[in-house]
Amino acid sequence: MVSPLQVLVLGRGFVGKYLTDLLEERGINYASTTTDGRDGTIKWRFSGEDDAPDAQASTLPFAESVVVTFPLLGSAAARKLIESYAGGGRHAVAGSSNATPRWIYLGSTRPFKESPSSRYTTPDVLAGGARLEAEQCVINSFGGCVLNLAGLWGGERVPSRWGRFYTTKEKLRGRLADRSLHLLHGADAARAICAVAMSNNPTESLVGRWLVSDTRVYEILQVITPDDRICGFLSALLEEEADVRALLNAKTVEEIVMGESAVTKRIDSSHFWNDFKTEPKYFYDRNRPDPY
Fold first, then answer.
1. Does position 47 have pLDDT exceeding 90, yes or no?
2. Homologous superfamily of the 5-158+183-217+265-275 domain (CATH)
3. CA 225, CA 2: separation in Å to the nearest integer?
């Protein structure tokens, strides 16, 4: 008799690659999917469209924990994925320690606006949109666990290069009121997911959402000002707008106080690391290479 998988990773993207490497390192029985079946993965693509076959996820192997790494847009998409995966009598698979899979869905910390926000903070519905609706469905209808991950980095994802997202000085201007930046290395995201998937705690105790960051708060200007274009935008804003000079308490870029002391922590992830009795290992320093 073939034993069920311990973990199924739906979507081996950025986080999924770190996760599968960790599962292999720990000798955990797993499978993962990609849209093209590369590198020994299962070829599979989820469609949330109403006219797509309802049974499309029923062909996937049973696993005790299922990790969804891609965004689901709305409760209908979340329900379709989970209910179609449950097709084919998966709950009766012999050898499984769980009657139903433990669902782990990855979200972001974007909808959390309070300072600080924790797993008990009510997320902003408008900021969360359809993705937040899917998260609520996974939690409330299927007893799932949502991990809201802070800004992911590692490998080719280098925070000091994120200045490219601020294509105009107006976009940078919109970031100056809250310059806090919360990060999570892909390897620590994988360790967090693995901690939930392999937890010996009853599934009921894991239901709900957890905010996950590396516990530190970074300052966005300190991270991206090596970008000369960003410095140019800042210089122009300081020269042109009295409100910006007052906000930054500076007249020139050189006078801006940057760093952790200049910002307020927005994400409190202590509940996760304390409850799962682990801690992050990798922290960002723009002057040092990726420590992973």
1. no
2. NAD(P)-binding Rossmann-like Domain (3.40.50.720)
3. 54
